Amino acid sequence: MAVSVQKTDVVRLDQCDPNFIREVEEAGGVNVQACYQCGTCTGGCPTVFAMDYTPRQIIRMVHLGMKDEVLSSMSIWVCSSCYTCQTRCPRGVHITDVMSALKSISIREGRTPANPKGPVFYKTFVDIVEAYGRMWELELSLKFTNKAEPEIPNKLAMLLRDAPLGLAMFTKGKLPLAPHKILNIGQIRSIYENIRAVEGEK
Amino acid sequence: MKYAYYPGCTIFGSGLEYQISTLAAAKELGLELVDMPDWNCCGASSSPSHGHDLTLALQARNIAIAEEMGLDILTICNECYNNLAHAAILFNENQSKKDEINSLIRDTGHQVKGTVKVRHLLDVVLHDIGPEALEKLVRRRLTGLRLAPYHGCLALRPPEIAIDSAENPTSMNQVLEVLGAEVVPFDKFTAACCGSSVLLTQEDVALRLSYNILKGAKDAGADAVVTMCPLCHLNLDFKQKRMQKKFETELGVPIIYFTQIIGLVLGLSSKELGLSKNLTSTKKVVKFVESLPFST
């Protein structure tokens, strides 16, 4: 679902979703309603310089039900999950967990976020874990580049740019060419299957 | 001192020298690290993709394996530590969540009881071994070596899983001081985020954050930055050349695991500690340490 949202100073209440805050809480955004907008989170955020809305604004937008704006924002994908905001919050809002919850809702609903690389990364990561039970860095970086850079010249440019580093890692024995798959991979796949089944019931 | 050893997936690749040096140093430190049979990935920051329950279920299988061994889990990666510690606390405290996750892992043949603790190796060195016992093992003091201790985020925050103060940690400083090193002023950066989790998705952001940390270390006159997490390490070491290019500054700051530093002090060779595997050359530091006398 492609949503085109303009950053605006006007809040259109008729376009807000009153259930959004509950959805965020259910996805792990503990205490999101407790925020009193002091801005401590924004003050301490190391990645706020690259965000379109500050963490404080994101929380307020969740309160107001501005679902489309929040889920299409850059901010939720810029968050590096350092937990500084959550640690400092005087109201006990689990802000970092709110950001993770927003990412998960965005992915679940198939939104097209301001940074499409975000969902691509997470999906690639969990797919590799489902396949081998463990991460395989080479496949992660190759698959991520392939999916995140849709244009062929961009793909090639990325691969060429990363080749010397890859070679350096390879010569030091730090770039295995095969995954270290776990023995009982069926157990991991059963976990994924069970989670899909539960998700399907919701 | 015996633990169920959870090394994390980086040991097969980017974190190879962390594994090599951890195993070598642990032997000298008298830590018995028992391999966890068939451990799985902790999922790192994967939870957004399948919801929080996937992350918890991945921890649950590992925690159950450790419980079957009757041992607490020891990790060396901040991200693995954060995920495992979060889950262990939750399972120990919240019966209904534990039941829910146990249902998700029912086909694995494992079930979580909620009895084990999760520890980070740095915390174990400082609190289970302790400064006094560590000092007795020191074979050469690092007199004159200037080190920047870098703790990162995920073993410090959020507070419920923290091994130290969330923003003013001193664990690594204490260890390095016992080893006789000079700890450079680094308080502003020691718990600052390196941006590792957005390295692939927001490279500019990650490079900026890491550059600040390395510049801080360089300005403080550090001979090396000492790390305790393979993801921080990857970001600071692997991407250093790119930072140099982007910010047009010569960095050349060696990034060394605290296990490699401990190993050198205990008299292990640079080869036994994988010090040629670090990407930014560690030769100068190794040469300096090897020139230091062994205590009698």
The SS-based structural class of chain A is: mainly alpha
| Shape-level CATH architecture of the largest domain in chain B | 3-Layer(aba) Sandwich
Mean model confidence by pLDDT of chain B = 97
Corresponding CATH architecture of the largest domain in chain A: Orthogonal Bundle
Outline of chain B:
globular
Q: Pick out the low-confidence regions of chain A.
A: none
Rg of Cα set of chain A: 19 Å
The gyration radius over C-alpha positions of chain B equals 19 Å
Look at the structure and give the CATH class of the largest domain in chain B.
Alpha Beta
SSE order of chain A, one letter for each helix or strand: HHHHHHHHHHH
Key traits:
heterodimer, A: 202 residues, mainly alpha, Fumarate Reductase Iron-sulfur Protein, Chain B, domain 2, 2 domains, 0% strand, globular, B: 296 residues, alpha/beta, Glutathione S-transferase Yfyf (Class Pi), Chain A, domain 2, Rossmann fold, 4-stranded parallel sheet, 48% helix
Walk me through the structure.
Chain A has 11 helices and no strands. Chain A has 2 domains: 13-108, Fumarate Reductase Iron-sulfur Protein, Chain B, domain 2, CATH 1.10.1060.10; 117-201, no CATH class. In chain A, 41% of the residues are buried. Helix content of chain A is 57%, strand content 0%. With 202 residues, chain A is mainly alpha-helical. The longest helix of chain A has 20 residues, at 152-171. With 296 residues, chain B is of the alpha/beta class. In chain B, helix 6 (121-129) crosses helix 8 and helix 10 crosses helix 12. The model of chain B has no long low-confidence stretch (mean pLDDT 97). The longest helix of chain B is centred in the first third of the chain and has 18 residues, at 52-69. Chain B is built from 14 helices and 8 strands. At the A-B interface, helix 6, helix 7, helix 8, helix 9 and helix 10 of A face helix 2, helix 3 and helix 10 of B.
